[in-house]
Amino acid sequence: MNRHLLAATALSVSLYTLQSANVHAQEYSGSADQRLQKLEQEIALLKRQREVQDEKDKSAAEKAAGVEFGKKGLKITSPDKKYELSLRGTFQFDERQFFNDDNNTGKDEFLARRVRPTLEIRAGAASLRIMPEFAGATTRITDAHADYKFNEALQLRIGKFKPPVSLERLQSAADLTFIERGHASNLAPNRDLGFMVYGNLIPDILEYQVGVFNGGADLANADGDDDDKKDAAARVFAHPFRNSSLVALQGFGAGVAGSIGERDGAVGRTILGAYKSPGQQDFFRYLTTSFADGRHWRLYPQAYWYAGSLGLLAEYAISNQEVRQGVNQDELQHRAWQIIGSYVLTGEDASFKGGVRPSQDFNPGKGGIGAWEVAARIGGTDVDNDAFPRFANLGVSATSAQSYGGGLNWYVSENLKLIANYDLTTFKGGAPGGKDRPDEQALFTRAQLRF
Q: Cβ distance 350 to 371 under 8 Å?
């Protein structure tokens, strides 16, 4: 019985195989033209499917934002390139030492000098910059301004920012050749609130800034207005050889800046500045009963020259101010100046903006040593002699200060910079009995990380 069942099964399989072979033979029994036509239809279908997938991928890419993260921080750009968000930051950690400082006027210490994240947003022709300062005991807003670019020659800025006066003050703190700014910066405002029109009248050749500000004391970082008066500030700066065949002079720039306004101070609201040495110690301060009362103007001739590895920066400052103390009133004129020279030993270019970019990051295994720069500086401040004794105490405040400094900068990478500075400052007056204040010998070091 089993033999009959197996035979029947085998017969059924054989019949099914013959039928299937017959069906396949019929399917492929068409002409060569029919087979070619069918193949072309299949290829066209696959091509269309690929096109549809490419369109989907392109649509998804157009809707996705571009994200970059690298040496210059985090940048997020909209698909149409009209909107952009950037996050950058600067961290500076300092160590300070003062030699032969028996009076302890300078404090040997470690400190976080700057802790500044920076948020920048661009929306078409408009942009916004916010930079808080987290170093120190209190947090404050250092920069907060909005800009609108009509064209290269006409741009508008409103908010809190650096008034266009001192050349070195306009340089970013991360790009400074020395750890602390020099004497000429003493006579200019640090930050103020107001609005400014600026732009390039001749691209790469001639720039200008004109603004109106609350108006503040020399070296002041204002968060508001101390009176109802306002300051006007203006600056023009030219690069006359930028596009010339004189390659060595293409990096030369010169200009003049200044401000003018009225002051209406009072005891307890003096609107008067104090002047600092490169060691960041006050060497001149008005009496607490003195206050600004009348016109205050500043004038700043300024220039720099960058040619390959060589850098030079110079500026002269005048601050002319009417001051009152009781029934006494006078017009005082203080002056300051400085010259800074630098040379990049490893051959990279020096620059006013952006710092030195090492051709090779420090990497002993691959022979990279980073970039090395040496620097020297000389400068001073002369206080109007008529300030003494009615408006300032000669036993506390110096009539003049003269500084000499040297520095060594190591750019480990574009993001990490190590700095060492030594400054010697001599004074006239500023000590009890009208004697000269002891020399200030300051050794500062800094580790700076920025991205």
A: no
Pairing of strands 282-284, 328-344: unpaired
- Is 1 contained in some domain? no
Question: What number of H helices and E strands is found in the chain?
Answer: 3, 20
Q: Of the candidates 151, 303, 171, which has an alpha carbon nearest to the alpha carbon of residue 240?
A: 303
Between the alpha carbon of residue 203 and those of residues 197, 309, 351, 430, the distances in Å are: 16, 25, 19, 48
Strands 371-382, 328-344: pairing is: antiparallel
Contact between 416 and 400 (Cβ < 8 Å) = no
- Domain membership of residue 139 (yes or no) is no
Judge contact between 131 and 117, C-beta under 8 A. yes
One DSSP character per residue, 237-289 reads: EE-TTTTSS-GGGTTEEEEEEEEEEEEE-BTTB-----EE-TTS-EEE---TT
Report the amino acid identity of residue 360. Q
Dihedral sign (CA 179, 182, 185, 186): positive
Say if residues 443 and 99 touch (Cβ distance below 8 Å). yes
Residues 116-154: tens digit of each pLDDT: 999 999 999 999 999 999 998 899 999 999 999 999 999
Backbone angles phi, psi at 25, to 5 degrees: -65, -35
CA 125/CA 333 separation, integer angstroms: 42
Q: Looking at residue 276, which CATH number applies to its domain?
A: 2.40.160.10
At 78-89, the pLDDT tens digits run: 998 899 999 999
**Alpha carbon 145 to chain centroid, angstroms:** 14
**Residue from 285, 299, 276, 240 nearest 395 by CA:** 285
- State how many domains the chain has: 1
Per-residue pLDDT tens over the stretch 374-402? 999 999 999 999 999 999 999 999 999 99
Q: Residue 265 domain-assigned?
A: yes
Q: Which residue has the tokens 């990380």?
A: 449
Token look-up 């991360």 returns 174
Range of the domain at 412: 89-115+165-192+202-450
Which residues neighbour 48 within 8 Å (Cβ) at sequence distance 6 or greater? none
Burial class of residue 23, CB neighbours in 10 A (0-12, 13-18, 19+):
exposed
41: left (phi over 0), alpha (psi -120 to 50) or beta: alpha
Separation CA 88–CA 131 (nearest Å): 10
Q: How far apart are CA 300 and CA 302, in angstroms?
A: 6
Is 137 inside a domain boundary?
no
Peptide bond just before 278 cis, omega within 30 deg: no
